[in-house]
């Protein structure tokens, strides 16, 4: 390796722009090259009864792992099988009903031969992604997705750069199209991403609201002394007042108590000072949206209700503190 002192000078920023511009241009070339084979590949993957088995060697393998992960996280059961390990027992992970998605830039990767032979012997359909239409992989594939010839961003023209970007992007295109065919929803996505920031963004109010005996509820005909006791016991800063059928009629908050503070407060009924038709939310609301709603309305708690006709039946209470503890301010 040459010493940095022996290398010709170059501009880092200019070189970075060159790489990104070249790869972006190559992606546009790929987009324009898609034809009916893309739809045929989707049909094969869509009708897979088992799993999509993704395999590739070297850089294609790294890209294949990401494609398998994207497929799995968007509703298409998928698994990456290393082609070299497949030759030493991991072929047991592949079975009839699966579809093989094989990646190889040259289409002649020797390590893929065993898994391709196994797929042919067990009648497992193959979707190949390669740059050579006349390659062994393309020939053995039921559908060959042949990528357009592009210039590698590597100045030596050797390190997979632009080519691996095209493979990854094509995998994303397949994954997203399958997602749309499946009608994959935010709820489905959330169920597969319960942890981290993605799970947090999709967290619903029903998961963090106070329910059952923890709800501060009492009859609207009750006295203010009972209101104070209930508010103190439940420690949520509010009390919900219900009618004989259990529908929410009004709310008294600790702010209401301060506003109505007088020597005769305890002689009044709860219905005398309650706020009629209070703001409510539904349990299916995203916590992020609920936290924003609380902030906009400058309130720290809100009743969660189930709507039946014109009546709102309380099913929980959401407090701002619960939103903060869940990571929302």
Describe this structure in words.
This protein has helices at residues 12-33, 36-46, 59-73, 83-86, 113-121, 136-140, 162-182, 186-192, 196-201, 224-234, 254-259, 270-273, 287-297, 320-325; strands at residues 52-56, 78-80, 99-103, 126-130, 143-146, 217-219, 238-242, 248-253, 275-276, 280-281, 301-308, 311-319. It folds into two domains: 18-184, Glucose-6-phosphate isomerase like protein, domain 1 (Rossmann fold, 3-Layer(aba) Sandwich); 205-325, CBS-domain, CATH 3.10.580. It starts with 11 loop residues before the first helix and ends with a helix. The chain is α/β, with parallel strands linked by helices. It has a five-stranded parallel beta sheet with strand order 2-1-3-4-5, with helices on both faces. A four-stranded mixed beta sheet has the order 6-7-8-9. α5 links the parallel β3 and β4. It contains 14 helices and twelve strands. 42% of the residues lie in helices and 17% in strands. The chain is elongated, with a radius of gyration of 30 Å.
């Amino acid at each position: 390796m040459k010493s940095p002192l022996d290398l010709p000078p170059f501009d880092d920023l200019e070189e970075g722009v060159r790489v990104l511009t070249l790869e972006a241009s190559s992606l546009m070339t790929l987009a324009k090259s898609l034809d009916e084979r893309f739809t045929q590949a989707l049909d094969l993957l869509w009708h897979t009864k088992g799993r999509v088995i993704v395999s590739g060697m070297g850089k294609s393998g790294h890209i294949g792992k990401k494609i398998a992960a994207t497929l799995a996280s968007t509703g298409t059961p998928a698994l990456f099988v290393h082609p070299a390990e497949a030759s030493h027992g991991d072929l047991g992970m592949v079975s009839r009903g699966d579809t093989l998605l094989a990646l190889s830039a040259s289409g002649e990767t020797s390590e893929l031969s065993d898994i391709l032979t196994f797929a042919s012997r067990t009648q497992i359909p193959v979707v190949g992604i390669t740059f050579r239409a006349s390659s062994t992989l393309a020939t053995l594939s039921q559908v060959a997705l042949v990528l357009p010839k592009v210039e590698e961003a590597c100045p030596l023209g050797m390190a997979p750069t632009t080519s691996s970007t095209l493979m990854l992007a094509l995998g994303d295109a397949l994954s997203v199209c399958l997602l749309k065919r499946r009608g994959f929803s935010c709820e489905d996505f959330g169920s597969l991403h319960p942890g981290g920031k993605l799970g947090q963004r999709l967290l619903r109010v029903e998961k963090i609201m106070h329910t059952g005996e923890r709800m501060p509820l009492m009859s609207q005909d009750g006295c203010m002394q009972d209101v104070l006791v209930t508010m103190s016991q439940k420690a949520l800063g509010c009390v919900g007042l219900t009618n004989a059928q259990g529908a929410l009629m009004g709310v008294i908050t600790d702010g209401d108590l301060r506003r109505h503070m007088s020597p005769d407060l305890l002689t009044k009924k709860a219905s005398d000072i309650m706020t009629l038709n209070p703001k409510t939310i539904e349990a299916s609301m995203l916590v992020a949206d609920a936290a924003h709603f609380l902030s906009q309305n400058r309130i720290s708690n809100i009743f969660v209700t189930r709507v039946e006709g014109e009546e709102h039946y309380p099913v929980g209470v959401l407090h701002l503190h619960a939103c903060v503890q869940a990571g929302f301010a």
